[in-house]
Amino acid sequence: MNETVQHWLKQQLPTYMAEELAELQTNSIQLEDAFYRLLPFGTGGMRGELGVGTNRMNIYTVRLAAHGLAQHVVKNGEQARGVVIAYDTRHFSKEFAVEAARVLGAYGVKSYVFSEARPTPQLSFAVRHYNAFAGVVITASHNPKQYNGFKVYGSDGAQMVPTDVKVIIDEMKAVENLFTVPVADFEAYSEWILDDIDEAYLARLMELKEREVDASMKLVYTPLHGAGLVPVERGLRAFGFDNVTIVAAQAIADGDFPTVPYPNPEEAAAFTLAIAEGKKVGADLLLATDPDADRLGVAVRDGEDYVLLTGNQLGALVVNYLIEAKKEAGTLPENAVVLKTIVTSELGASIARANSVEVVDVLTGFKYIAEKIEQYTTTGEKQFLFGYEESYGYLVKDFVRDKDAVQLALLTAEMASYYAAQEKTLLHALRDLFETYGYYKEALISKAFVGKSGQEEMQQLLTNYRNNPLTEIAGVAVTCVEDYLTKTATFADGTTKDITLPSENVLKYVLEDGSWVAIRPSGTEPKCKFYVGVNDNSSENVCRKLNMIQTVFL
């Protein structure tokens, strides 16, 4: 590591990076964390803290990633088809996008670069719109302000498949000196894009419309300083909503995200200003998107206040709404399928199956949902209806192949308008679902494991659970342990069954009463996540069960 630091010290770094490196040398722990490894490039790309060093997001690690992608493009002879590059409003996002384009250009690869910040789902759409070979979005999604990332997409608009990602990684590893990665003038091989792709995306968004809406319904929307403002506001108005209020303070693109602790619509604190605005204008529904607008949070008016829906709850509502609306219109396919992840609530699955709609579980990560969509599109065996995950990611129409908060913002507003005509809110609709299909409740416990020692500790935690499987949780017997790393489900009587999903470091415990707990390290944050799901015949019972199980893992 010392050799690496010395090598960086010899470079002509930008002033801000040289100053940061000088300061780091006074803190051995922070210096080690910045240089102890090369920032990992996983199946979706890389994500990390901004700063100087090999384990940080900076122009040099971005150039290295772009070099790996460029080699992949060149090996396939697809320089002319090129790469689409988008970015969110984070610090250095546009700069990193330009640097990536310059590296691609050095290898003769064409780039289509958004001239303004736009959502990740719009990047997915643009890849297919331009028939590009690949796509890149510079984003760290809903991570804190000190993070950024480099996310890669294939020609189908979905996150790049592991075999192609391996090519990129191998090419990155082959570079001995990341300061030697070449760059070209941006203008030589790059083209700015914006208005045409905005219009094309908006036109496709109109395909989501199932029913007419009440134009006077009052909505509040906040982009949380991110990239969702233009498509969400334009989309809502094009859908027919005339009474949309934007949270002005959060409509300002700002990588510091100054008005929220974290720019994450899963967090109640992210809705503070939206709730205040909602009370001021008497809004029926509040919508919030994260910085790259692939996740949507929703709050519903309940008397004088607002109640936030969970990702699981909104997903179940949409499953029910789509099935009912399409049945009413006679457009529900006989081979319709709902896709969800293994850590997502079973409520939506129960609704779908009760309506003879198939449900397919996939591993955590929207790339697996996109993979299934591509499979069904190719074979025609099933017709995609809806895909979602508990972490506020949803997709309705497959002209995008990643989670799309813009799509869900429009459909959720339409759904709320539909129920309002019946003098109901989305909360009333959710309670109706509970009464019909049983009460479901979920929780997520996240434990942070920061730095090199933290990563080692997290891996040891998973190893301990794997080598010493729990036989009961909160006094309820474990009936099955699903180990997705070994792809084996082991039942209480000792019998086993193969798991057909890809291998991943996840453990899931299924309990005798139908409750479940899944344990997995996050793929994008230094955290281990514990997912808990319970169901019963009353709200009181599910709350009691959930609390008992949570206590075990807190």
TrEMBL record:
<dbReference type="InterPro" id="IPR016055">
    <property type="entry name" value="A-D-PHexomutase_a/b/a-I/II/III"/>
</dbReference>
<dbReference type="GO" id="GO:0006166">
    <property type="term" value="P:purine ribonucleoside salvage"/>
</dbReference>
<dbReference type="GO" id="GO:0000287">
    <property type="term" value="F:magnesium ion binding"/>
</dbReference>
<dbReference type="InterPro" id="IPR005841">
    <property type="entry name" value="Alpha-D-phosphohexomutase_SF"/>
</dbReference>
<dbReference type="Pfam" id="PF02878">
    <property type="entry name" value="PGM_PMM_I"/>
</dbReference>
<dbReference type="InterPro" id="IPR005844">
    <property type="entry name" value="A-D-PHexomutase_a/b/a-I"/>
</dbReference>
<dbReference type="InterPro" id="IPR005845">
    <property type="entry name" value="A-D-PHexomutase_a/b/a-II"/>
</dbReference>
<feature type="domain" description="Alpha-D-phosphohexomutase alpha/beta/alpha">
    <location>
        <begin position="311"/>
        <end position="437"/>
    </location>
</feature>
<dbReference type="GO" id="GO:0006006">
    <property type="term" value="P:glucose metabolic process"/>
</dbReference>
<dbReference type="InterPro" id="IPR005843">
    <property type="entry name" value="A-D-PHexomutase_C"/>
</dbReference>
<dbReference type="InterPro" id="IPR036900">
    <property type="entry name" value="A-D-PHexomutase_C_sf"/>
</dbReference>
<dbReference type="Pfam" id="PF02879">
    <property type="entry name" value="PGM_PMM_II"/>
</dbReference>
<keyword id="KW-0597">Phosphoprotein</keyword>
<dbReference type="InterPro" id="IPR005846">
    <property type="entry name" value="A-D-PHexomutase_a/b/a-III"/>
</dbReference>
<keyword id="KW-0413">Isomerase</keyword>
<dbReference type="GO" id="GO:0008973">
    <property type="term" value="F:phosphopentomutase activity"/>
</dbReference>
<feature type="domain" description="Alpha-D-phosphohexomutase C-terminal">
    <location>
        <begin position="497"/>
        <end position="536"/>
    </location>
</feature>
<comment type="pathway">
    <text>Lipid metabolism.</text>
</comment>
<comment type="similarity">
    <text>Belongs to the phosphohexose mutase family.</text>
</comment>
<dbReference type="GO" id="GO:0004614">
    <property type="term" value="F:phosphoglucomutase activity"/>
</dbReference>
<dbReference type="Pfam" id="PF00408">
    <property type="entry name" value="PGM_PMM_IV"/>
</dbReference>
<protein>
    <recommendedName>
        <fullName>Phosphoglucomutase</fullName>
        <ecNumber>5.4.2.2</ecNumber>
    </recommendedName>
</protein>
<feature type="domain" description="Alpha-D-phosphohexomutase alpha/beta/alpha">
    <location>
        <begin position="41"/>
        <end position="176"/>
    </location>
</feature>
<comment type="pathway">
    <text>Glycolipid metabolism; diglucosyl-diacylglycerol biosynthesis.</text>
</comment>
<keyword id="KW-0313">Glucose metabolism</keyword>
<keyword id="KW-0119">Carbohydrate metabolism</keyword>
<dbReference type="InterPro" id="IPR016066">
    <property type="entry name" value="A-D-PHexomutase_CS"/>
</dbReference>
<keyword id="KW-0460">Magnesium</keyword>
<feature type="domain" description="Alpha-D-phosphohexomutase alpha/beta/alpha">
    <location>
        <begin position="203"/>
        <end position="302"/>
    </location>
</feature>
<keyword id="KW-0479">Metal-binding</keyword>
<dbReference type="Pfam" id="PF02880">
    <property type="entry name" value="PGM_PMM_III"/>
</dbReference>
